Amino acid sequence: MPARQPSRQPTTALDTRYSSALRPLPGAADVTATEWTEAQRQLEAAEIFWVSTVRPDGRVHVTPLIAAWHEGTLYFSTGPDEQKAKNLAHDGHCALTTGGNSLAEGLDLVVEGTARPVTDPSVVEEVIAAYEAKYGAHITSPEGTFHGIGDAFRTGAAVVFALSPATAYGFGRDNGVYTHTRWSF
């Protein structure tokens, strides 16, 4: 695993081609880019993400999973024999997306980068703690959907991946006012 880096602050840009700034609606004349702090807050709170990977033959593979944002990195896992693990072993480039399904409100996020397997036991323990803090009883209760995931991380029965953003996008909607923000790291 690469050396851990402190959370980097990206450059932020509003893409007016895809924002209400191009076609101002009432209340949209002063549309601005979404702050990275808001995107981080959403990444910390989101429960479900979609990971997009590429198969060796070039076909895209997309599947839902849980993930935890910790110290500027998204952590997720999969079984070593699952398609996404095979894809990432071949090509670590991927995207994690999260957001809502409303046309009128919300913030959808796309985080792109290169996923790397986490092998450092101390980082694995931090990831377990982040998962437990975020998902609570889903992980800590014997009846929890993901109970035992910490042990699976420790033993390698599940592969933990770290995705540090290279580029991220935010697609905001607020009662007909749309923003398209790009964060470059």
What count of helical segments does DSSP give?
Answer: 5
The whole-number mean of residue pLDDT values reads 92
User: Major beta sheet, specifics?
Assistant: 9 strands, antiparallel
- The shape is globular
Helix content: 10-25%
How much is the radius of gyration in Å?
18 Å
Along the chain, the helix and strand elements come as EHEEEEHEEHHHEE
* Secondary-structure-derived class: alpha+beta
Contiguous runs where pLDDT drops below 50 for at least 5 residues:
1-6
Beta-strand proportion: 35-45%
N-to-C CA distance: 19 Å
Task: Please give the number of β-strands.
Answer: 9
What can you tell me about this protein's structure?
The protein has 185 residues and is an alpha+beta fold. It is built from five helices and nine strands, in the order βαββββαββαααββ. Strands 1, 2, 3, 4, 5, 6, 7, 8 and 9 form a nine-stranded antiparallel β-sheet that branches. A hairpin with a 6-residue loop joins strand 6 and strand 7. Helix 3 runs antiparallel to helix 5. The protein is globular, with a radius of gyration of 18 Å. The N terminus is likely disordered.
